[in-house]
Specification:
Oligomer: single chain
Helix content: under 10%
Number of helices: 1
Distance between the termini: 25 Å
Number of strands: 5
Radius of gyration: 15 Å
């Protein structure tokens, strides 16, 4: 679920490297990120170096499953005062990665990984706006 959102919504990949991964305390997915071409590192708020770089991260909440897939709350911070949150829907049974019908994974067409458009409505709740 998270890999589909990382690839389709955030478009992480060779030309857009992943940001450090910040997770909820009680949520730690066991995923072979490299299987999907992702290379997340753990977010460290006390990392040495440029303090602005510590304000760059992406987070994913625990997926909430139903009979058709799952919804995942996610947020991204690009730097000080530059972030937003989303609620993303992932449709079950869809492969992660570009589909045969949509090799580029373009928005508005058949979605690779089943990631539906994400709703930015949670930004205020997460305190990101």
């Amino acid at each position: 679920m998270i890999a589909a959102i990382a690839l389709q919504h955030y478009r992480f990949g060779p030309d857009n490297p992943t940001l450090p991964l910040k997770l909820e305390r009680d949520f730690s997915p066991r995923c072979d990120w490299s299987r999907y071409g992702l290379a997340f590192t753990a977010y460290d708020p006390d990392a040495p170096g440029d303090t602005r770089m510590r304000l760059r991260w992406v987070s994913f909440g625990r997926p909430v499953y139903d009979g058709q897939g799952a919804e995942v709350e996610t947020a991204i911070m690009h730097g000080p005062l530059a972030g937003t949150g989303y609620r993303c829907r992932v449709i079950s049974g869809s492969p992660v990665g570009p589909s045969r019908k949509d090799p580029a994974g373009e928005p508005g067409s058949t979605r690779a990984g089943g990631a539906a458009p994400c709703d930015p409505g949670i930004a205020r709740r997460r305190g990101l706006r």
